[in-house]
Amino acid sequence: MELSESVQKGLQYLADPVHFDLKTFTAFTEVAFQSLISSRSECGLDDPQLKDIDQTILKHCHIATTTFILESVKQNADKSAISSCLEDSFDTDRIDVFYSSYQHHKRTLENLLESIGRSPPHITDVLWRLDYCIKNSHVHKVNQPSYLISLHVENDDSGGPPKEVNFNCTMEQLQDLVGKMKDAAKSLEKATQS
């Protein structure tokens, strides 16, 4: 599992006994898992056991830990994969504490990730209107057509009502958009045939 430098640095802070002894590490790990699972907007970093830790370090560790947790769940990591990622920074006790929480919350996190959805939004309808601008707000002659485009977009996974994407463009911009859409359609057709 590849981790960014920022995530690795946050995990190193978390492994440092100066910042987190085993008791605060255990509390922090549970807070990190609960912040991913909980529907509350607060992440739980105001836990009394974490009050003595510098807030900047605490937030950095929280981001790094939740990133690592989600990446581990996404890749269906087992104990050996997690241990190999954490063994450079964590001692055996901390790895065991982390893995125990991971096992306890893994199924819930898998369900959470599955509920996010996989398909991108798709356009279901297009409305357009041609405006002709004669003068601008500075009373300069413009004499240029302008297209107001409204794309109705749906996402199969969300099940919510369609959304609208509205934008304004010139004739050249509209021609460029149409050309790019035709190129994308051809590329998609070629990809499905091979």
TrEMBL record:
This is COMM domain-containing protein 3. Belongs to the COMM domain-containing protein 3 family. PANTHER family: COMM DOMAIN-CONTAINING PROTEIN 3 (PTHR31159). Residues 122-192 form the COMM domain. InterPro entries: COMM, COMMD3. Pfam families: COMM_domain (PF07258), COMM_HN (PF21672).
